[in-house]
Structures are given as structure tokens and as C-alpha cells.
Amino acid sequence: MLVGNMWTTIRAALVAPLVLAASASHGALFNLTFSNVTFEDGGSVSGSLLFDPIEWTPLTKITTYDVRVSGGNTDLFPPFEYVPGNSDTFTDLNPSPPFGGPRSFVFAFFTGPLALPPALQAPGVTVFGREVQFEVPETVFESVVPITLLPGGEQWLLSPNDESAHRSYSPSSQMIATAVPEPSIALVVLGCGVALFLWNAAKRSN
Q1: Percent of the chain having pLDDT more than 70?
Q2: CB of 98 within 8 A of CB of 70?
Q3: Per residue in 153-177, is it b (16+ CB within 10 Å) or e — as a string?
Q4: DSSP β-bridge partners for residue 31
């Protein structure tokens, strides 16, 4: 009975990583990294996010991201770091990007109400938050070199709207996508190692 149980455990150790590897292969996870992204006011954007264009749906939320903005007109846009703890996300697929070209993914990271910089404070102004948005052709996931961002930028979400509370990206701003290795190989190796260990244990027990 002990040997039978051991063989059952060995088979489970071999099958489990193969099942997990198969399930992990459905998507295509990418690390999107900002490359030389600057604002027209001299500010800059750095950081990255994880995104799966295959599994994407209109309800998809980005859960792993770190988008840092700094420099430029800091009187209007103090340095800020958009992370899951202080902001939310929105994604969309644009089938007809401006100026033609391939479809594009739109990413937005936005906060709730924040304290307005003194330069934007005025009677009757309501602040809903701060938002950074960018749009990138879906061909970025097929490229090994940075792809130029489509028009986008950062803004304060105000009522009434204030055009001075918006800054756009410089034309040279880019993004690069790097595929995240799937864990399938590591899982298979680990499973085979466990099975080999159990095999040796079973032999010693006979």
C-alpha cells in the first residue's frame, strides 16, 4: 500500500507542472517600459507595467505598474508616482488611431482627489484627480525596438476644465515591450526533480 501511494504521488508530481505549464501558455505577458519619454514642458516619465494583450478585455485592470513623473513645470505638476496603492487604471483598444496606422492600446492611470498646487487653485474649482495617459500601437508587442507613443500626456481632472493643467508628450517619446518568460520550463524541471526524489525514496523503502 505504501508503494502504491508513493507511485500515486510521483504521478501527481509529474502531471501537475505539465498542467500548470499548459494553462500558463494561453496568455502573453509583456513588460512595457518607458523609453526616453518626456513632456513638452521638460518633464519626464519613467517606470513600467505588466500587460497581457492576448487576455485583454474592456474590463481589464492593470495590477502591476509603477509610473513616475518628474521635472518640467513643477508648479503645475509636482513629482508624482502612480502605483496601485494610490491610483486606478483604465485600458482600451483603439481600432482607429489618429493619423491612421495599426490598432493601438490606450492606458490611463488616475488618482482620486488630491491637493491642487497653488498655481491651479481658484474659487469654484473642483479637483477630481490627476491622470497620466498614453497610447501605443499594438505592433509594440511584435517589435524588439522602442515604438513611438501616440499623442498623450498628463493632466489634472478639474471642473471647470483648465487647459493649463495639461501637458503633452514630446514627439520622441517611446515605449518598448519585453516578453516575460513563462514559468513552464521551471515548473517542469521542478516537477521532474520532485518525482526523481520520490522515486529514489521509493526504491530505498523496498
Answers
A1: 73
A2: no
A3: bbbbbbeeeeeebebebbeebbbbb
A4: 50, 178
Residue spans of the domains in the chain: they are 1-25+184-206, 28-181
Q: What is the pLDDT of residues 10-30, one digit of tens each?
A: 444 444 444 444 444 456 899
In angstroms, the CA 132 to CA 107 distance is: 8
92 strand-pairing partners:
106
Q: What is the distance between the alpha carbons of residues 152 and 137, in angstroms, rounded to a whole number?
A: 13
- Dmax (CA) for the chain in angstroms is 85
Rounded Cα gap, residues 201 and 2, in angstroms: 11
The reply to whether the predicted model has a pTM over 0.85 is: no
- Angstrom CA distances, 4 to 7, 173, 200, stand at 5, 62, 15
pLDDT tens-digit series, residues 63-91: 999 999 999 999 999 999 999 999 999 99
Which triple of cell numbers denotes residue 43?
518633464
Rounded distance between C-alpha atoms, residue 191 and residue 195, angstroms: 6
The C-alpha cell that represents 146 in the structure block: 522602442
Digit-coded pLDDT (tens) for 136-149 = 999 999 998 999 99
- Report which residue type is found at 172: S
Pairwise CA distance, residues 184 & 186, whole Å: 6
Q: What angle do CA 96, 99, 104 make, to 5 degrees?
A: 40
The whole-angstrom separation of Cα 29 and Cα 49 is 10
